[in-house]
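User: For my dataset I need records formatted as: sequence, then structure tokens, nothing else. Please produce one.
Assistant:
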Amino acid sequence: MTSTESQPITHPLIDLHLREQVLNWLSEQVPRSRIEHILRVEQMAIDLAIQHQLNVAIAQVAGLMHDLAKYFQPQVLLKMAIAEGVELDEILESHPHLLHADISAVVAREEFGIEDQEVLEAIANHTLGQPQMSPLSCVVFLADTLEPGRGDTASLQALRSLFDILPTALAGGFSKHHCAWISGSLTRLKPNASATFSPEVVSPQTFTPLQRSISVCPTV
């Protein structure tokens, strides 16, 4: 049974040959547990895109490819980041794993021919984020953080219940479940990540539900 056959998705919208190609590539790069996570992120990205009237096909692509470089060696991540012109700081140099999102976008472009800038940005933003992210980036970040395999705690369930208002869910998702494993303190994160999730930037009073306003979402 192939990776593609093992977990069919609800709405297969992208080219099935491309999807099979990506999954076959992943099967040689990451463990099965990571592929299962990727498939859950893909499905949640699809579901959120449908819910918020976004382009479902590009949400699926971004979800499927968000962790392409997850298991690249630190020296490889650093070398590729330098070649790509990614701005490095002390934190990224000390924790190259944080670069896997940026490098996953590079792999999506170079290995699989993805040229849609919004897709590439959503892949690159799914770990540290950027202020004023696109709705697609919001969707991929939330799908990665809150997919069912992350657990079923009361706090996760509460965050999932906020999916109708993505900025609110995003602020909560980051502060409760993302910050600790990245660096332990917002003050040590890259400035863009700290700004992305600050209460002043991500405020439920600032946004209408995304299904009514799809233009920008200050979030990861």
